[in-house]
Amino acid sequence: MPVLTRSQRETLTDVWLTGPATLALLIFIFLPITIVTILSFSDYQFGAGDLSWVGWENYITLFTSAIGQRAIVNTLIYVAIVIPFSVVFALLVAIGLHRMLDWAPALSRILRTVYFLPVAATLVAMAVAWQMLLHPNLGLVNKVLSSLGGAPQNWLSDRGLVLYTLAAIGVWQSVGYNMVLFLAGLSAIPNDLYEAAEVDGAGGTWARFWTVTWPMLGPTTLFVLVVTATNAFRVFETVATLTRGGPAFASETLVYALYREGFVYFKAGYASAITVIFFAILLTLTLAQMRLVERRVHYR
Amino acid sequence: QTELRVHYAIPTIWAETQDALAEAFMKEHPEVRIVLDGPAEGYPEGVQRLVRESVAGTAPDVAYVGLNRWRILEDRDLIQPLDDFLGENPEAQGYTPALLSLGHYQDTQYALATSASTLVMYVNPDLVEQAGGSMEDFPTTFDGVIELAADIDALGDGIDGVWIDRHDWRFQSLLGSYGGLPMNADETDITFDDEAGIAAATLYQRFAEEAGMPSYTDSDARQAFPAGTLGIMFESSSLQTRFEQGAGDNFEVTVRPLPIAAEDPSNVWFPTGGSAIVMLTEDPEKQQAAWDYISFVTGPEGQRIIVENTGYAPANAQVLEDRTYLGSYYDKNENARIAHTQVAQYAGPWYSFPGPEGVAVTDMIAAAMVDITEGADPEARVKELAQTLRMQLGME
Amino acid sequence: MNAIPTLELGDVTRRFGEQTVLDSISLAIPPGSFTSLLGASGCGKSTTLRIMAGLDRPTAGAVRLEGREVSALTAHERNIAMVFQSYALYPHLTVAQNIALPLTMKSLSALGRLPLLGTLIPGTAAARKEIQAKVSAAAEMLGLSHLLDRKPGTLSGGQKQRVALGRALVRDPVLFLLDEPLSNLDARLRVQMRAELVALHRRTGKPFVYVTHDQAEAMAMSDQVIVMIEGRIAQAGTPRELYERPASLAVAEFVGAHAINLITPQQGAGEMHSSAARAILGVRPEHVVPAPHGSFTAKLRSVEYLGSEIVLSLRTDQGVELKSIAPGTFEPPLPGDNVRLSFDPTCTHLFHPETGARIGGASECRS
Amino acid sequence: MNAIPTLELGDVTRRFGEQTVLDSISLAIPPGSFTSLLGASGCGKSTTLRIMAGLDRPTAGAVRLEGREVSALTAHERNIAMVFQSYALYPHLTVAQNIALPLTMKSLSALGRLPLLGTLIPGTAAARKEIQAKVSAAAEMLGLSHLLDRKPGTLSGGQKQRVALGRALVRDPVLFLLDEPLSNLDARLRVQMRAELVALHRRTGKPFVYVTHDQAEAMAMSDQVIVMIEGRIAQAGTPRELYERPASLAVAEFVGAHAINLITPQQGAGEMHSSAARAILGVRPEHVVPAPHGSFTAKLRSVEYLGSEIVLSLRTDQGVELKSIAPGTFEPPLPGDNVRLSFDPTCTHLFHPETGARIGGASECRS
Amino acid sequence: MSTLLLLAGATLILLPFIWMLSLSLKPQDEIFASTITLLPSRLEWGNYVKAFTETNIPLFLWNGFVVVAGILFFQLLFSIPCAFALAQRNFRLRTVVFGLVLAALLVPFHVTAIPIFLGLAAVNLLDSYAALILPFIPTAFGIFLFRQFFAQMSTELFDAARVDGLSETAVVWRIAFPLALPAATAFAIFSVTAHWNDLFWPLIATTSPEIATPPRGILYFRDQESGDDVGPLMAGAVIITAPLVLAFLFAQRKFMQGLAAGGLKG
Ligand SMILES: Nc1ncnc2c1ncn2[C@@H]1O[C@H](COP(=O)(O)OP(=O)(O)OP(=O)(O)O)[C@@H](O)[C@H]1O
Ligand SMILES: Nc1ncnc2c1ncn2[C@@H]1O[C@H](COP(=O)(O)OP(=O)(O)OP(=O)(O)O)[C@@H](O)[C@H]1O
Ligand SMILES: [Mg+2]
Ligand SMILES: [Mg+2]
User: What are the residue boundaries of the ABC transporter domain, all occurrences included (chains C, D) (predicted)?
Assistant: First the structure.
């Protein structure tokens, strides 16, 4: 007879299966988060020998300083643009490509790769290409715009515009990612539902979409929303490579702010406070999103 | 054999230079082995890395850092004073007081400049001529520059007259041209809200309003100038090589010194960009080897290598005075000569602001310049800026 | 009654690439009839149904609905209701909404269907009320009234099936198509649903076309059974015709609760039946009965007790394997014993050894 | 033979949270027997089987394998083979690999199982050869030899089923557990596989426990049928015992090809049967037969023709609904006509109106 | 109509890539030109030559491969058993662990970078492959994706394996893992593209050029101080993007299946 009881052995198995991953999560994610949270109540300067506790001061600064508020508002605006546009475009593209699979599978697959390219691209180089395309004077975008009779714009140096430019690039980056997820969702919709809709009189393009496609994509959409939201909230790389938060903090976002405060200014304490706020916003929104949508999406 | 780990940034400029320096040095000092760390992308990233590595205990022994960045390391007691090594008479080795001032803080020498650059004007002679000006009597005052720029701007579609970045270093340069200073000597007060500072800031607005300066980002401008659509560009002398390559045969990139606006030219100074070298190692034995290396790269031979490879201005008087080192180089590089003369004449420290907010406030200066370019009242805005800085830096 | 069939297929052929899935199918669905399409998996039943519904189009041939050629009409213009094998319920809609969908699509404009705005369009409220009433009536009839607010995900198989039926019923279509609607149910529920379907058919008076691969289902429910084999119609007729006069060996093998006994001429079963020497002889197990004075004997190999009946597996001395069905009350001998058997002579079938076509046998099997 | 049952459950109870799924189940599987667990969906059959296999653990009670208490052993330590309803074939392995897997796990070390390295470990080659041989033998026996290199995805239902069986067979386990292995097959294939299973059972000589909700299957195959109702054992016995002497109303309703006719005392069917006044009378449809001199009459409501038999739905004047089964050759009157019927008096059952327990009736139903 | 729109959209998406390709083939003096030309007047392979000679691109690609493969290997090694247990086993802390996973899904890496940097320094692992690989081993996204995938697989299959004598570890690696291959392909694409292109962490954790990853490698041509060396930068970008695009083309079929079968059905 084995030394351990069956329950004990089962527990050991569970530990053996989940332990390593859980431990890794704790060490590489939750331990750092804890440290960061603690530091957010201090004035710690990275590299400095000492620190003192300052209570909520960092938080107060964040919420009262113009730049801090700007970062929060900018992030929210950015997210509010990127989520709907990238999700809707991705959905349209996915539906188009899915249909194309029937009569031009090769083209459909090529286009799928094209739309996916931005996900695979190296931003260091893409940023340079974007800068050249968006050049106020020499860039293709403005040249096309003015040849169509529009007024050229300072895409990256106009304070009123820069955030929207970044958001557009954000959409460019995430359409492919979302499209792939939607395509997968589309291919999982059983064909007989479309046929039932057809027999029931919902045969038109829109009727089909609203009766079958959209509701059946519910879980996919939820997943896409969560992934897009978390990625949009974390916007950092485009800001860092294209505008460095400028001009005059017009494109400052939360993660860029925490990067700048922590890494460029070495204000680790303050950066930690930004982190905590960022995390709190993200957690709240994601939970709310899941709560609100989850029930409408899993048809039980 | 002693091993020295050396950190540097900006591989585009420095990679080959560093190899050449290390090779030349090791030939002279076979007992020392130089190991180069992988370079950092830029000076800010470089100093970030040094701070992190110091915290982690993996810092290199010697590092090249941005001239305005070594104070961050000093603030954290990460770098060693060099006074004992320099000896009694540094000037004899080519370290003039002006050059030493770049690495001097509170009576201690922490860093030595290895390469220098100041703000200059890059000019597109073709556009100047089209606008009816000439390179022979190129304006030497800001008024003249603005007038010429306005003429160039008027050439029409897609042609811009002048551009200057809205940035701390550029502002300090204009300020220096007017003879103003950002802070008082003991760093207890902001002083750029005087006449000189307001005049310097007003230039931004005048460029924009009178000469139609576009609101480019720096990369926009760096693309526009070599493309031949920008007449006059205020930029660091270190961009010379890239601009010449970019313009190719289209036009001849020409460098002109910054206008002097102060009534008393002896007050004029230009903040110096470029890099300094600092010693991080605390091991006495290594320190000696490190000093040997530092004195080699800041000495005439090292400086020759640096100037010839990077286009930076030298930071040792001996190379400038003694034509045997760089004479033939300057004969071929008129633009470099102009830029380096300006450095020799007016080199001054690139002020970094004291305390934990020191770096952060430079972004506020830049933001204020954006406001002013876009129409804010210069005087009011500069005063407000000064006041904000005093608060941030804990000067009140 | 009307002489024009509700639906007619005329020489319908359907090819997918190289493969001919339907090969010149002609059939007619009379008004008010209950027709089963019976066939093995892959024989083309669903394809036929889809062509009737307008979900698929024939490569060649005509589809006539109430005498009118309808090849040009799409599915939703034909007013045909279809129940899918997998039910194809919309998981995001409640039972009531599922049932109401076809009506909503028909009687409300696109605007009127919008959740809030819709109420503002004139006539919408009245139309909605009418739909409501029809849905309630259908639900009542199907015993779904208490489930109207549930989502399909929470229903059992039988309930789902009734919702799918409800969605078809509520429309008042000219024809109902049902694609193996019972195949997902367990045995007992299947029998029960069968009866409900028949009752439903009687109540609506509309023709039903019912696809199944279960011969028992087809036999029990239909006026007309169409047996399909590999894309062709092997036989069409009443259940009794199929059972008593199968047109071919294949049909005979397909129809009947227990597999038919087949005796080839080579097996030299001449002693069992006089015709067995030149043709394949088919006798259903229920017509091979133990009889003290039977015409031949066979050795009992195994016995399956099914309660109401007992299945005997036997082998004759010539090596012919036979099954015989005795009533449940029959006391079987021990396996290994010899049993004396006789054929019911009025219930034998003869098929051509090569073509499998029926070449003789009893014309009517009544004892 | 051995007197110790191969497997025994002693008062096994299983709760999931509040819900008691198994309530004090005791049963014994004798060596070499074929036992069916019969019950409606959700009655706890699978749970019982999983407890036997060691995949689940009883909340209370003992599991004895060959007399030894095995609660402490996990599934992979028990040497019990199990065939799942969905076959649970490993889709990424070929048929041969699927069948070989249990052997590989048993006879090769972890290292030896590695694709290339494995060949270097001493003894591996020999062990692999042996496995190969066993797999070939099992495949031969099941007629799978030509399919060994195929992936399960390309097999038909019946073939899959045989692979699943092969995987169980190859191991030489002490006991076979089969959880509704035939429920995914179509009717005809089901009957055929049934026979194959029985043959297999005979060949291996190992006890089989067979879960099903199809009473016909249970009756046809088993030595012992255990009827489970809502987590309890309602009756255990031979098929004939169950059919002829159902221990309760519930069992009687469950067993038999057609639902039993039940007549409650309130329906005042005294004229049909003398005992019907104090108890619930149960008569199977096959024992209600049209007879010219039958004891009562009923009105014919509908007729289902099944080929070998005909199901008549009738209603007496008192409103009692009855089914009767006549042979397929019977010529039924028209619906609406009256039919004279009689009960087979030796085949009636009486149940207590409240508890449902059997309180009388024929002890043996032989005519 | 919709096809035209799709093609137009694709062109928009492609625009920067076309630009990148065109720049990588342009000589210096055409890169900054006042007129827009898509095709260079002469093909300038010099940018590629420069990209190859001035930096050690083959080495960067190799490093990228080692790091990306290492990360993926350990991510799978850790997340698959955990996801399997979360989906197919019942244990007391299951909700807690799953909660941790969901929360971790939301944490951007920037937040944890510095503490991890210090931790790695403390155990002397900085500036090594380990430093590039270790922090990415815990992948909440991976655990989440695989859990969704396993959750909708039938328990019977795993029970069958248990009855067949497989231990839980064997069930995970011999049955669950091969079945999860499509999902793993999907996950691999996301993981590989993210870590291949990651610049943030390699810049923090490594200094030696010997272990530079591709983006860190082409950073060599990026320069604030004296202006980017655009031609070689773009050439380098083309070289390091190409393997990913090829990988996507190869993997896309498996990948789509994986997502379709996996977590997306809720
Ligand atoms: N869209 C299609 N493309 C190619 N072949 C098809 C298509 N639809 C059906 N088939 C083929 O046509 C044949 C008949 O298919 P169908 O679905 O009509 O059979 P069925 O009788 O309904 O079978 P089952 O009982 O399995 O549902 C099959 O061999 C199938 O493979
Ligand atoms: N893991 C579980 N947790 C909670 N309840 C369960 C679990 N497993 C089974 N049950 C419940 O136990 C009861 C019996 O389930 P079981 O699967 O044994 O039924 P069954 O007789 O095999 O039914 P079927 O014929 O449908 O397979 C059901 O009500 C089921 O909901
Ligand atoms: Mg079908
Ligand atoms: Mg079950």
Answer: 7-255
Q: For residue range C22-32, list pLDDT tens digits in order.
A: 989 999 999 98
Tell if the CB–CB gap between C308 and D286 is shorter than 8 Å.
yes
Min Cα distance E94 → chain A (Å) is 9
Instruction: Give a three-class secondary structure readout of B8-62.
Output: CECHHHHHHHHHHHHHHHHHHCCCEEEEECCCECCHHHHHHHHHHHHHHCCCCCE
Report domain extents, chain C: 7-244, 258-361
Q: Does D172 touch chain E (CB under 8 A)?
A: no
Chain A closest-CA separation from residue D71 CA (Å): 8
Compute the average pLDDT of residues C214-233. Answer: 88
Tokens 């009717």 belong to: D187
Cβ contact C82:A199 at 8 Å: yes
Tens of pLDDT, residue by residue over C153-177, are 777 667 788 888 888 888 888 899 9
Amino acid at D290: P
Please say if the pLDDT value at position D295 is more than 80. no
Q: Which chains touch E (3 or more CB pairs under 8 A)?
A: A, B, D
Does residue E246 carry a pLDDT above 90? Answer: no
DSSP assignment of E104-128, as one string?
HTT--HHHHHHHHHHHHHHTT--SS
Task: Find the range with the poorest average confidence among A86-90, A153-157, B270-274, B379-383.
Answer: A153-157
The mean pLDDT value for B280-309 works out to 88
Look at the domain A65-296 and name its fold: MetI-like fold (1.10.3720)
pLDDT at C1: 46
- In 10 A of CB A213, how many CB atoms? 21
User: Minimal Cα–Cα distance from A6 to chain D, Å?
Assistant: 5
Mean residue pLDDT of chain C comes to 82
The stretch C98-112 carries a mean pLDDT of 76
Task: At D23, give phi and psi (nearest 5°).
Answer: -120, 95
D54, closest residue in chain A (CA to CA):
A6
Give all chains having 3 or more CB-to-CB distances under 8 Å with chain C.
A, D
Atom number of ligand 2 nearest to Cα D39:
21
Q: Are D24 and D61 in contact (CB under 8 A)?
A: yes
- Tell me: pLDDT of C207 over 50: yes
| Cα gap A169→B367, rounded to integer Å | 24
Cα→Cα distances B325→B295, B307, B332, B334, D325, Å: 17, 10, 14, 16, 121
If phi > 0 it is left, if psi is from -120 to 50 it is alpha, else beta; for residue C127 that is: alpha
Mean pLDDT of D5-20: 87
Q: Return the number of other C-beta atoms located less than 10 Å from residue C281's C-beta.
A: 28
Distance A192 CA to ligand 3 centre (A): 11
DSSP result, E149-214: HHHTS-HHHHHHHHHTT--HHHIIIIIIHHHTHHHHHHHHHHHHHHHHH--HHHHHH---GGG--H
| Cβ contact, residue pair C239, D305, below 8 Å | yes
In the CATH hierarchy, which fold is given to the domain comprising D7-244?
Rossmann fold (3.40.50)
Sheet of B119-123: strand order equals: B160-164, B230-236, B119-123, B254-256
pLDDT at position A82: 93
CATH topology of domain D258-361: OB fold (Dihydrolipoamide Acetyltransferase, E2P) (2.40.50)
CA gap E88, E155 in Å, rounded: 7
Tokens representing B182? Answer: 């950002």
Six-digit token string for C143: 């015993």
- Which of A254, A176, A188 lies closest to A219 in space, CA to CA? A188
What is the pLDDT, as a whole number, of residue D247?
86
Asked if the model's pLDDT at residue B61 lies above 60, the reply is yes
Q: What is the DSSP letter of A242?
A: I
CATH class in words for E55-261: mainly alpha
Domain residue limits, chain E:
1-44, 55-261
Between C11-15, D109-113, D160-164, the lowest mean confidence (pLDDT) is in: D109-113
